[in-house]
Design brief:
about 110 residues; mainly alpha; two-stranded antiparallel sheet; about 15% helix
């Protein structure tokens, strides 16, 4: 017996319990759907991220000379290419960001 929502006072829902039409369902399931990563345009630059194979390792130096010398490489970006950030929370209280934390967690400073 359901004491929380008695049958006589329950409001019928329009979508709950129905099977909505999903026009993109078949392409997604069959692998035919096109996403942003599936497109290649002439002259398009592609970025790659090289992560350390060692968890919590202390990175003492990074030698990018071999990577920069590869054919087709336009740029090699390391943490030294970004400015130092102040320890400061920026933005409204509920969504404030601390860019100092981000540069240390993402770019291995």
């Amino acid at each position: 017996m359901n004491d929380v929502f008695p049958k006589d006072t329950a409001k019928p829902f329009k979508w709950v319990g129905t099977r909505p039409v999903r026009p993109d369902g078949v392409p997604k399931v069959t692998g035919l759907a096109q996403y942003g990563a599936d497109f290649a345009l002439p002259g398009m630059l592609v970025g790659r991220i090289l992560r350390s194979p060692h968890a919590h390792a202390r990175i003492r130096s990074i030698d990018v000379s071999k990577a920069a010398a590869l054919p087709g490489v336009k740029a090699v970006v390391t943490s030294k290419d970004f400015p130092e950030q102040k320890f400061d929370y920026v933005g409204p209280e509920r969504v404030a960001q601390n860019f100092w934390h981000m540069t240390r967690n993402i770019m291995a400073r």
